[in-house]
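Hi there. Long-time user, first ticket. I'm pasting a complex I've been working with (about 461 residues overall). I'd like to know whether the download I got is complete or cut off, because the file seemed smaller than I expected. Thanks.
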Amino acid sequence: MDNTLKFARTKATGVLLLGLLLSSAVMYCQSEAPIPVMTGSVGYFTKVTEGQVQNIPSIDSLLLVPIGDKWLIEAKSDFSHTWGNQQGGGEYGSSSSYGLAYAQVDYIANRYMTVVAGRFIQPFGIYTERLAPNWIRSLQATPLTVPITSGSALGGMLRGGFPLGTTKINFDYAVYFSANNTNHILATDRSTGGRIGFFVPALRLEVGASFEQLLQEDRSHYVGGHLVWQPYSVPLTVRAEVVRSSGFYGNGYWIEGAYRLSQVPQLRRLELVGRAQQFFAARVSPTASSDVLDSVGKDTNQADFGINYYLRSDLRIATSYGRHFSLNDNSNQWVVGLTYRFVMPLGPKGSPR
Amino acid sequence: MKVRTLNSLVLVAFAMIGLAVASAWATTPKKSTPAPAVAAAATSSSGAAQDDTMRLEGEKRFRANCARCHAAPPKFPPRMMGTIVRHMRVRSLITDEEMRLILRYMTE
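Hi, the file is complete. Here it is re-exported in full:
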């Protein structure tokens, strides 16, 4: 084959490939297919607890990559830096924390089921999966019951939500299995569990129950219940969770009310929040190891009050005061800060219909 | 002879690219085209009523489901909203029907 022929063939192949690439790109730009999106939040908080001042800037970013009609890749990372002094004064120091909250692949198999694989948030209660991001949570203080359960999982999950017949009740479920992982950023427990929930749209009432069985260490189990209610008559949201554990950590519950003053024109951007919670530490066996003993808390009651001001739907000033009551350790907790939620398209976003 | 054939192939490829670009340009909705007005004229009153019903139903589902956790976000362009609603379907377990109604409401 002479060189001229070889060159002409290469040229033809190159142009054909370029043509295919270009037409695919043009078709993608014009289609209505969902595009990758980067979302998340940034926040800056000052917390004062027992004379200890902490300044905490943070950023959470969530990458969403849809593929076709049925697939979605989700990856969320978080980073925060804390500057603070010692309790009761003293020198300032700083520390950083970072982690991968989840990195999962979702496959929407049908209208009843989605298959999830990877690292995901354990489906237990409502707080960790739905309310934890700082731009969503009504009070920045995390409920005392949240650390009781494992939090994250590495494995597979089946979940879905669908209406139950004609009764106008939506049913949702999630069941999962997680493997043990000891990596310091991705640590998970070997466990299994799930959650079911019922939502009555006519009452805007959601109730549900959760279960986790730890398959390692003390093989403890955890059961929980949750409730969300938004009456139509007033702009009020009531949320509650209860967790009972057979392990070393204990039991507890929290109940929270958030009232948006949307009926008063001058105050419609304000939200008043209150939360009450109790934590009952487990009775620990005298033969328990020292690291277990150190991780067990004390019976605690806590009351928090907060005021949130929405500058925009995505920009909020959050303030709160909490009083913490536990044996020889009563304290005040003040929080003031700002949260901003961002959403960025990573492709041609299309125009409104 | 073979070189001539390949040159023709190159021309055909260029023609394909031109055709793709032209068709893309031709199918892009033009802002100056009074398409909504034409569509509105062509739409029957029953169709408009159905659209209104679906929009109201979408808003109702949005308020019942999304507002349980967070404040109402602004509306985003359709291709962004498609991704966000798919994420929320998995995260907060909204039903397939609710996802479609909310997507419609949030992109109108």
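A couple of notes from our side: Chain B is about 75% helix and 0% strand. Chain B touches chain A through 49 residues (CB under 8 Å).
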